[in-house]
């Protein structure tokens, strides 16, 4: 499987939105090519949703929207204007600046070059889109009006681009050189400067004039963009905010790029003390370069059309490094907790762990215990999901599910790794131990067994999180957002698994609260092969509760609902016993367990519920672990 920037659970809505938008045709128009005062083609037809891109040649042209009646004056009430685009090239090449408009309807659009030095418009340098081919308002009629127009031509008084995208392309590391091309940029505010990366491993980072090769506070930085291919498909876009000079450099220390002159400026003075030449000279003797620890900042990184909002650090490793030879080959490839994760998996997960956590000054013992429990259960999940994905992707179950489902499961596996990293990062940050790693006994027989285990692990984690999140002290409130987001992520996963399981929609999983001790016990009994593992988690019982098995079910005549269950468990505890039912939305009910170990299902329970045999009834959820005799186990009480 190959998906370095993969559709994932997180990005699906985004992809759907992108697909819904009409991808129009892009029409190209040259402005003043071959030293001629013409737009080529002078007139064209375009549909709503299409774009038209103007590229500018020597000398110094604009494309400005007018009315039909006044060809050389800006459209009253505001039309588009590219701003003037001088092109000093003497070899006839296009300016790195282009201007792109989007066509919104089929009405005629009239335009001209506003250059007064030589009266370009009055010499016939005009242009039209969707001009009528007959009647009075033809392109020929417009062109004739321009030849007779009075001088001088008009332009929007502020001189700034409007009504379209003015973009200046800068090549980073052209042909292996330590350069930005161009490096000496003049661009009006609102211009997008687009940096395109080439080998090997460059940054575009803003500095002040006085401290070249050091990041400017609140300035932009692309981060390191390592690439072996040219063009890489990676771009960094910034928008020129005003007319103040902007200074930037490459922060690569290997080869001292900045000091060797890999720097540039936007709107620098051409004389005086602060010219680009002066900045280059200052950079030559600057101390070793640094860049901010996070990227991208102050601009947008796009990889072959996909926007990357955040890297894990300041280097775009994931998108350019090929995936590991065997990315999902079962439990052997799941990295141990706390070890670095191959960036390939961040792509698979549709995002990395947070680069900036906003942790508080301290962490309570309660929260540490909760995190230790999460690490434990997320580690089992990661191992299960990777093994499952590997079999579905290219193993014994390769043809069981459609590719989209297999990829979604792969994304879930990768997201579980990211969640586990967030947990270990937090424990490590507060210098708390990660404990030892367990070996697992995972179901091996069928896809259905795997799905059932994946679902149970998700439901156990959701249940324990809903319970645990209420016990996080206010001093650890920084934990609430990641914990709540994990609940959301696991809830999405249960929905996907539920669809794969072919159950009726009515049985869709809902969230049942589950004390962490019971969840821990279930995982220990069912999925952990080494009973001394993991290292004791604070608050957990000394050993797992005895296992609980459902041996019989009574159902309604139409078999649509379970009305009673018979259980078996291994316990010598004497006295009356009850079954505690833990259902959706925090429901907790108790039914007496008869001598034959049968009990009736509460009438108002539906879907997945967890049960435990207890020695005392009507206790609060937090007190259930203290009275548990055996369990828990999951039961379907409505239509399976
Ligand atoms: C380009 O033309 C505009 C309009 O005539 C003028 O204001 C501007 O100074 C010119 N730029 C250059 C570099 O010649
Ligand atoms: C099309 O609509 C957009 C959004 O309102 C506007 O910015 C743009 O200028 C319009 N294009 C033209 C050619 O008028
Ligand atoms: C790229 O660099 C090579 C080696 O320095 C040189 O021979 C070649 O002419 C350069 N190509 C361009 C387009 O500058
Ligand atoms: C890119 O350069 C940075 C800084 O030297 C380094 O940390 C990173 O590992 C490099 N990436 C690659 C793929 O070489
Ligand atoms: C972008 O696409 C090009 C062409 O398919 C490919 O060579 C390049 O590796 C891609 N870039 C990344 C970063 O994946
Ligand atoms: C930058 O361009 C200006 C003119 O626009 C020129 O005077 C100056 O020498 C150039 N500087 C460099 C370093 O190319
Ligand atoms: C996990 O790894 C062990 C040891 O390499 C192997 O025996 C087992 O089959 C793998 N898969 C599962 C599902 O346990
Ligand atoms: C599937 O696995 C086999 C053996 O490991 C390998 O040769 C093959 O290339 C894999 N196919 C895909 C599509 O990854």
TrEMBL record:
The keyword Iron does not apply. It comes from the Eukaryota. SUPFAM superfamilies: Cupredoxins. The keyword Transport does not apply. InterPro entries: Cupredoxin, Ser-rich/MCO-related. This is Extracellular serine-rich protein. Gene3D superfamilies: Cupredoxins - blue copper proteins. Residues 1-23 form the signal peptide. Keywords: Signal.
